[in-house]
Amino acid sequence: MSVSRRGVMKGGAAGALSIALAGSLDTVFQTSAGADTGVGYGPLVPDPKGVLDLPEGFTYKAFSAEGDTIAPGVLVPGRHDAMSTFKNRHSPNWLMVRNHEQTASGTKPVAPAELVYDPAAFGGTTTLEVDRDGNLVGHRISLAGTSTNCAGGKTPWHTWLTCEETEGFSGQTKSHGWVFEVDPWGRATRPEPIKAMGRFSHEAVAVDPQTHVAYLTEDASRPFGLFYRFTPNSRRGVYHAYQAGGKLEAMYVPGLPDLAAVNEAGARFRVEWVEVPDPEAVTTSTRKQFEDGRITRSQKLEGAWWGRGACYFVASYAERGAGAAGDHAGQVWRYDPRGQILELELLFKPGGRFDGPDNITVSPYGGGVILAEDGDGEQYLVGTTRNGEPFAFARNALNDSEFAGVTFSPDGKILFANRQSPGITFAITGPWHKLAER
Questions:
Q1: Separation CA 355–CA 313 (nearest Å)
Q2: For residue 102, which of 86, 84, 85, 118 has the smallest C-alpha distance?
Q3: How far is CA 120 from CA 70, 224, 374, 406, in A?
Q4: Contact between residue 172 and residue 181 where contact means Cβ atoms under 8 Å apart
Q5: Which residues contact 203 (CB under 8 A, 6 or more apart)?
Q6: What is the mean pLDDT of the chain?
């Protein structure tokens, strides 16, 4: 996002990871105190190039950097953010759609007119083709003229929903704050906003593969953002299905106006849903269309992930000094749509080595996850073991820019990740099976 996600959290790089756990996720999000515990893949080895520190035996390839030439007059945009991988229907290579969180400046995407929404906006997506060894085969602009493309989500029908984290900017020629759908194969993409999914400062989307109901996070303030549910009119799993419209609702937990007030993992709440009166926010932002006390808010709602029959979403941090009801360095929530129950799965306490969780991906190895950190000080990719112990898997050795876009290849052999600034994509390979646990 345009304002650092680090905000005012001051955990720093010293100390231990301090997390409280509910435990109901088995080991998926479990971590424990201590950061240098000898678990994981071992200590990080300094990169002689000063780019990316990794454990011994792991290597990276860096490609598709901001400013690289795609074609004559066409350059790779900057501020690389969320992305996802897809199987290629026409070759053994992988496809990957990547967001660019630019607003009205940066390296502008240049694309055919049929892929441009607003010529004044500098955001969009690129689609990359990568071979099975993590080598870049080619890349192209797949959507242009959108703004502040931060996070998003993969659909069950294998397209990418890219989200604008803005409600507009000076100089725009069309309204912004929408979700757009990108076809990885490039045949069906149209620069048309999915207006029924609402106009607000979007972060991420997680889609229920059974019902195609989408859950969306909003990163906003004055007032804080909401957690939304979009129920589509059409249940067809095809491109443009969401263009048929649907109902947008916001989550309401009676008696809980601010998620930051919850400081005990395992706390569970009954959820109600309140329809958004005007999803297109013609005159009033969606989050401002509710009376205080009749909706539930959160500071810094970020990543979302669907798994194990539920939607998991992240609040990156909260601080009382910014108006939140409590202080924390990160929360992971689980919403069970069948029982309409919200549960706090994981709580990062201030003062730990790692803070500011953002993008999350499940690791095929060891039953843990990889977290893309956007915290204070040094920036890490943080892994967890099957037994729930944290370890630093990678460190940004170049600067303090956040990691983003963590996602595994469909065969689980390559971890892709982005450094946001200066924007670049990494393909990381190594002895994944050697994950050490205690």
A1: 16
A2: 118
A3: 21, 28, 28, 29
A4: no
A5: 150, 151, 163, 165, 216, 217, 218, 219, 225, 301, 302, 303, 304
A6: 90
> What's the pTM value of the predicted model, to 2 decimals?
0.92
SS3 288: helix
| Beta-carbon-side half-sphere exposure of residue 352 (alpha carbons within 13 Å) | 29
Other CB atoms within 10 A of residue 431 CB: 12
Question: Which pair of structure tokens corresponds to residue 318?
Answer: 């909260």
Q: Which two tokens stand for residue 257?
A: 């106006």
CA distance 124 to 191: 10
Question: Beta-strand (E) ranges in 173-255?
Answer: 179-182, 202-207, 214-218, 227-232, 246-252
Query: Which has the higher per-residue pLDDT, 26 or 170?
Result: 170
How far from chain centre, in Å, is Cα 129? 21
Q: What is the pLDDT of residue 390?
A: 75
Nearest to 428, CA basis, from 89, 54, 173: 54
Length of the chain equals 438
**In this structure, are residues 13 and 392 in contact, taking their beta carbons and an 8 Å threshold?**
no
**Cα separation of 403 and 419, whole Å?**
5
CA distance 287 to 225: 6
What one-letter code names the amino acid at 350?
A: P
